[in-house]
């Protein structure tokens, strides 16, 4: 009789789930068998909030953002970028030090917004997450309307 799947205590890739492992043929694990991996919800597991908070900067033209930019928050991100295009003068600041992640579509939305800027206007990104800097370097390396400020 095969061993019953066991909870490893190690979180799986998805928040609020656990990886369940066990041999698939009744042989002890490690004897050439594949490991069966399933995602099962854990009752009462705390799921971290995923969102994007947007607030005006105090005393400066710009926005302070926190959270993550992903499919779930794309509309909020795009509204923030639209606001930057509409309100901004020559320089519009986006304080991103509390942003933990930006996916490629979010980076693309930023690049598309920056490409519409004219007359010497630019977006200044303060302390953006590494993922965003990397995406901009890879896909939009010569975008003069985005300036990145790091400490």
In short:
By secondary structure, the protein is of the alpha/beta class. It has 3 helices and 8 strands.
Describe this structure in words.
The protein has 151 residues and is α/β, with parallel strands linked by helices. It has two domains: 6-41, no CATH class; 52-149, Transcription Regulator spoIIAA. It has three helices and eight strands. Strands 4-5-6-7-8 form a five-stranded mixed beta sheet. Strands 1-2-3 form a three-stranded antiparallel beta sheet, with no helix packed on it. Helix 1 runs parallel beside helix 2 (104-115).
Sequence of secondary-structure elements: EEEEEHEHEHE
Shape: globular
Number of strands: 8
The Cα radius of gyration reads 22 Å
Number of domains: 2
If you consult CATH, what is the topology of the largest domain?
Transcription Regulator spoIIAA
Give the oligomeric state. single chain
Beta-strand content: 25-35%
What is the CA–CA distance across the termini? Answer: 59 Å
Q: What is the CATH superfamily label of the largest domain?
A: STAS domain
Low-pLDDT runs: 4-48
User: In CATH terms, what is the architecture of the largest domain?
Assistant: 2-Layer Sandwich
Adjacency order of strands in the biggest sheet:
4-5-6-7-8
């Amino acid at each position: 009789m095969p061993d019953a799947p066991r909870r490893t205590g190690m979180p799986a890739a998805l928040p609020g789930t656990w990886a369940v492992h066990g041999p698939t043929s009744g042989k002890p694990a490690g004897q050439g068998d594949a490991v069966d991996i399933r995602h099962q919800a854990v009752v009462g597991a705390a799921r971290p909030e995923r969102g994007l908070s947007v607030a005006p900067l105090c005393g400066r033209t710009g926005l302070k953002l926190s959270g993550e930019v992903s499919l779930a928050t794309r509309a909020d991100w795009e509204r923030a970028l639209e606001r930057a295009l509409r309100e901004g003068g020559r320089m519009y600041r986006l304080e991103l030090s509390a942003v933990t992640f930006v996916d490629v579509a979010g980076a693309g939305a930023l690049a598309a917004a920056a490409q519409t800027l004219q007359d010497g206007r630019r977006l200044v990104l303060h302390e953006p997450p590494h993922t965003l800097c990397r995406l901009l370097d890879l896909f939009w390396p010569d975008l003069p309307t985005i300036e990145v400020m790091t400490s």
